UniProtKB/TrEMBL annotation:
<feature type="binding site">
    <location>
        <position position="93"/>
    </location>
    <ligand>
        <name>Zn(2+)</name>
    </ligand>
</feature>
<keyword id="KW-0804">Transcription</keyword>
<dbReference type="GO" id="GO:0003700">
    <property type="term" value="F:DNA-binding transcription factor activity"/>
</dbReference>
<feature type="binding site">
    <location>
        <position position="96"/>
    </location>
    <ligand>
        <name>Zn(2+)</name>
    </ligand>
</feature>
<dbReference type="Pfam" id="PF01475">
    <property type="entry name" value="FUR"/>
</dbReference>
<dbReference type="InterPro" id="IPR036390">
    <property type="entry name" value="WH_DNA-bd_sf"/>
</dbReference>
<keyword id="KW-0408">Iron</keyword>
<protein>
    <recommendedName>
        <fullName>Ferric uptake regulation protein</fullName>
    </recommendedName>
</protein>
<comment type="subunit">
    <text>Homodimer.</text>
</comment>
<feature type="binding site">
    <location>
        <position position="108"/>
    </location>
    <ligand>
        <name>Fe cation</name>
    </ligand>
</feature>
<feature type="binding site">
    <location>
        <position position="125"/>
    </location>
    <ligand>
        <name>Fe cation</name>
    </ligand>
</feature>
<dbReference type="InterPro" id="IPR043135">
    <property type="entry name" value="Fur_C"/>
</dbReference>
<keyword id="KW-0238">DNA-binding</keyword>
<feature type="binding site">
    <location>
        <position position="89"/>
    </location>
    <ligand>
        <name>Fe cation</name>
    </ligand>
</feature>
<dbReference type="InterPro" id="IPR036388">
    <property type="entry name" value="WH-like_DNA-bd_sf"/>
</dbReference>
<feature type="binding site">
    <location>
        <position position="133"/>
    </location>
    <ligand>
        <name>Zn(2+)</name>
    </ligand>
</feature>
<dbReference type="GO" id="GO:0005829">
    <property type="term" value="C:cytosol"/>
</dbReference>
Length: 143
């Protein structure tokens, strides 16, 4: 049994072809922070006949089961990444949509200090920083 099949079984989900194919695609580094529509297009490109409604349904099931994490960046559409054991934050370019994951111990420590100062015990948090790429490859538009 593959790692993907084990992950599905562990999450209480039946091992089906659409679930396995979507999970396999999500494991590629180029498919982190991918929308349901882009995942659907990728499936079509590799010859998989999985409908868009099925992609949405599977991603929702994966989100409910903790296999993927759903993010709502400024673009307005949800993007998904595999749920990871390590916490990270995100930098998002408002022009080209590029998403960069980063971790910073100083930021994490400061967030804990601020929460404690206000008598809050953090159970979860996410940090999204928005800006514009400063390299020539970015499509900056009119910014």
């Amino acid at each position: 049994m593959t790692d993907g099949n084990l992950a599905l079984k562990k999450a209480g989900l039946k091992v089906t072809l659409p679930r396995v194919k979507i999970l396999e695609l999500m494991q590629g580094p180029e498919n982190q922070h991918i929308s349901a529509e882009d995942l659907y297009k990728t499936l079509l490109d590799i010859g998989e006949e999985i409908g868009l409604a099925t992609v949405y349904r599977v991603l929702n099931q994966f989100d409910d089961a903790g296999i993927v994490t759903r993010h709502h960046f400024e673009s307005g559409k949800a993007v998904f990444e595999l749920a990871t054991q390590h916490h990270h934050d995100h930098l998002v370019c408002l022009s080209c949509g590029k998403v960069i994951e980063f971790s910073d111990d100083v930021i994490e420590s400061r967030q804990d200090e601020i929460a404690m100062k206000h008598n809050i015990k953090l159970t979860n948090h996410s940090l999204y920083l928005y800006g514009v790429c400063t390299n020539d490859e970015c499509d900056h538009g009119d910014t």
